[in-house]
TrEMBL record:
Residues 83-120 form a coiled coil. The keyword Acyltransferase does not apply. Keywords: Coiled coil. Residues 1-30 are annotated as: Disordered. PANTHER family: L1 TRANSPOSABLE ELEMENT-RELATED. The keyword Chloroplast does not apply. Residues 17-30 have a biased composition (Acidic residues). Transmembrane segments: none annotated. Gene3D superfamilies: L1 transposable element, RRM domain (3.30.70.1820). This is L1 transposable element RRM domain-containing protein. It comes from the Eukaryota. Residues 144-232 form the L1 transposable element RRM domain. It holds the Pfam family Transposase_22.
Length: 298
């Protein structure tokens, strides 16, 4: 019995040793297979890395080549575009220069023509002014024998203006013995008849002799002639141009009268008798700019 148990123990131990040996052999076999697989995978990995590296290098070389070709294409394209742009600009500049040269030539021609036209215009204006002055002078000479009467109410002259004026002058003006009025014409100013409340039209009287007209006018200035309680005023029959020039002295006359300064307005001039002497002015503007130096407030 004892031997049997001992034998069983040995058999069991031998069995265990055999299993352990078999297990170790299997483990070694498994480890060898794993190492082989690992070595295979490592080799494959190295091959993949090498292949990838080669592909990267090839890609890098291709990219570099493509970039070089692209750079050349872009450079050539830019150069071509710049050359085309430069040629186009040069053509435009040449055209502009030609236009500028043409414009300068035209401007020079126009300036020369303008100078000629300016000289002609100035000459024409001068001639027109001379002719106008002559016409005004001629018209003024044609009115030398005329005088105007201001303030006669409309309708007061009746049917005959000439008879009314003759009677008025004979009544208020005592001419030297032997001097006849010799009125040739008398009529109202040739404008529309004003309203009843407006200023009446002046009466123009034409004398045969200039000397008679002058005597009548001077005596009328020295005499206060009234009609229906209203004063009548007498003056020369001036042209419209002369009247405008004389009207310009109006404010100056008012100021001189207020300050008691003696003055006269022969034709288109003004004589002012200042404290330091007589001064004659050709225009109202000249008189206006000079009067503050002559007398304060004028």
């Amino acid at each position: 019995m004892y031997k049997t148990r001992k034998t069983e123990k040995k058999t069991l131990k031998a069995s265990e040793n055999a299993e352990e040996t078999e297990y170790a052999s299997d483990e070694e076999a498994n480890n060898g297979e794993a190492n082989a697989n690992l070595a295979l995978q490592h080799g494959r990995l190295l091959e993949s890395i090498s292949s990838l590296t080669k592909e990267i290098l090839d890609f890098k070389r291709d990219i570099k080549q493509d970039l070089g070709e692209f750079k050349e294409d872009v450079t050539k394209k830019i150069q071509d575009d710049l050359k085309e742009f430069k040629d186009e600009m040069l053509q435009k500049l040449e055209k502009q220069n030609a236009n500028i040269d043409e414009a300068q030539t035209r401007i020079a021609d126009l300036e020369a023509a303008c100078i000629g036209m300016k000289d002609t215009l100035l000459s024409t204006i001068k001639q027109n002014m001379e002719m106008r002055n002559k016409l005004v002078d001629l018209e003024g000479r044609g009115r030398r024998n005329n005088l105007r009467i201001y303030g006669v109410p409309e309708g007061k002259e009746g049917k005959s203006v000439q008879d009314f004026v003759s009677e008025l002058l004979k009544t208020h003006i005592k001419l030297p013995e032997g001097v006849q009025l010799q009125i040739q014409r008398a009529h109202r100013a040739l404008i529309s008849k004003p309203a009843a409340t407006a200023t009446p039209r002046s009466i123009i009287v034409n004398f045969l002799q200039f000397q008679v007209k002058e005597k009548v006018l001077r005596m009328a200035w020295q005499t206060k002639i009234e009609l229906d309680g209203k004063r009548l005023y007498f003056d020369n029959d001036y042209t419209s141009e002369t009247m405008e020039k004389r009207k310009a002295y109006g404010p100056i006359k008012t100021a001189l009268k207020e300050r008691g300064v003696r003055f006269q307005t022969p034709y288109t001039r003004m004589k002012i008798f200042w404290d330091n002497g007589l001064r004659i002015y050709d225009t109202a503007d000249e008189c206006g700019t000079s009067r503050p130096r002559r007398r304060e407030g004028l």
